[in-house]
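ingest -> validate -> predict -> emit
validate: passed (alphabet ok, no gaps, 142 aa)
predict: started
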Amino acid sequence: MAWDEWEQLKSEAAQRDSARTQLNEAPPGGGGTAGDGDLVVHDDELGKMGNTAYELRQKLGVDSDFARPSTFTASIDLFNDGLDMGAALTELHDAWNTQAGTLKDACAHISNHFDFTRAQHAKDQVQVATSLPVSKIDDYIK
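emit:
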């Protein structure tokens, strides 16, 4: 490869990277449209999502445990009969319980996060409503 060819390839690569790499930037000619920048929180939607996560956790608690007793009994019986499959089944049983517990914990975490978000949003609303002086509100109304 000749030096000129190397320089040409470096230049082309730099141009491609500069065209791809863009930071958050407003489009030329002005900002966004009205209303796009407002954060809207619907308390009832947060409640529904939190409740769905809670219900999923409860369902996982029941459904993931359905085969646990029979799996454990089978693993013990196989192990006592001298089969290596019994130990492997016990290991699978334990791994399943660990993973199911992790999934239930994640659902609980999500549900709790929605509860916290709802409570925090309510506090923020009160703080905003009480921090604006009446004269400022009058200015916005006029």
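Residues 14 and 20 are 10 Å apart (CA to CA).
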